[in-house]
Amino acid sequence: MQKLTVVLSLIMLLSSCGTRKIKATPEVAMMALSPRMIIKEYKEVNRDFKTLSGRMKIELQQADKTTSVPASFRMIKDKGIWISAFFGLAKALITPKEISFYTATTKQFFKGSFEELSSFIGTEITYNLLERFLLGETAVELKSQRSLWEVTADFYRYQMADKKEQYKLYIDIEPSTFQLMKTLISEGSGKGNVSIEYLDYQKINGIHIPEKLRISAQSQEVTSSVSIEYKNLSINRQLKFPYKIPQGYKQLHLQ
C-alpha cells in the first residue's frame, strides 16, 4: 500500500464556459429503489463526450506537507491524457499502452507500461480505471444482485470482494443525482485502503463532470492524498498532445 501511495501521488502530481454546479443533497429522502432501477438511473446521467480540456488545481498532501500545483490538461476519451504542470516545467502523457512524464527541474523522465506499474504496486491498474477515477465513473460495471447492495441513511452502497478476498470494493451513489460519491478499495487484510471522493460536480453543455475530487491512500505507515479541482473546462474541442522528452534527461526506473 505504501508503494500505491507513492505511485498515486506521482501520477496525480504529473498527472468555465457554460458550466453549472451540481450540489449533492444527502438530506433527500431515500427511496427503496431496486438495484436494477438504481443502475438504470446511474447510467442515464449524461457522461458522454469525446474530448475534455481545461485547467487543474492539484494539491498533494503527505504528513504535514502540502504542495499545490497549477496545471493544464487535455483528455481524448479512451485514447490519452496530457498534463502540463508548473507552466510547462513538467509534462505527462498517459495512454492505454504507456505512462510517460518528465520534469525540467531534475532533468529526469519516466516511461513504463500499466503492466509494469501494476506489478510494482501489487495491484492491477489500467488506463480505463484511471479514466474512470478522474471522470466520476464506477470502477466496475454495477450488477443488480440484491446481495451486493445496501441502502443507508445517505446513499446507495454497492459492495463486492474478489474471490480470494484480497480486496473489497465499496461504491457509494448519491440518491438525488445518482452521481458517484465515493469509491473505497480496501485490502482484505485491513492494513490499507485507497478512496476516491467526489466533493462536487458540474454540468457542461449537458455533460456531467466532477468539479472537485480527492484521492487518498492509507496504510499502517503513511497517509497521503491528492485533491484535484477542474477549472474552465471545454468539451469536444479538437485536441493535440504536444509532448517530447528533451534530450539528455536521465530515465527513472521502478524499483
Characterise this structure.
By secondary structure, the protein is an alpha+beta fold. The chain has a single domain (2-15, 20-237), classed as outer membrane lipoprotein receptor (LolB), chain A. The chain contains 4 helices and 15 strands. It has helices spanning 2-14, 35-44, 114-121, 127-135, and strands at 19-22, 51-62, 65-76, 80-85, 90-94, 99-103, 108-112, 149-151, 156-161, 167-173, 180-187, 193-204, 207-218, 223-235, 250-252. The chain has a 15-stranded mixed beta sheet that branches. Strand 9 (156-161) and strand 10 form a beta hairpin. The longest helix is centred in the first third of the chain and has 13 residues, at 2-14. The protein is globular, with a radius of gyration of 19 Å. It starts with a helix and ends with a strand. 27% of the residues are buried. Mean pLDDT is 84; it is low at 1-29.
Give short descriptive properties of this protein:
255 residues, alpha+beta, outer membrane lipoprotein receptor (LolB), chain A, 15-stranded mixed sheet, 4 helices, 15 strands, globular
CATH 4th-level superfamily: Lipoprotein localisation LolA/LolB/LppX
Number of strands: 15
Q: Mean pLDDT, nearest integer?
A: 84
The value of Rg in angstroms is 19 Å
Strand pairing plus helix content: what structural class? alpha+beta
From the 3D structure, determine the CATH topology: outer membrane lipoprotein receptor (LolB), chain A
Q: Would you list the SSEs in sequence order as H and E?
A: HEHEEEEEEHHEEEEEEEE
| Poorly predicted tracts of residues | 1-29
CA(first)-CA(last) distance: 15 Å
Instruction: Give the helix level as a range of percent.
Output: 10-25%
User: Strand count, sense and closure of the main sheet?
Assistant: 15 strands, mixed
CATH class descriptor: Mainly Beta
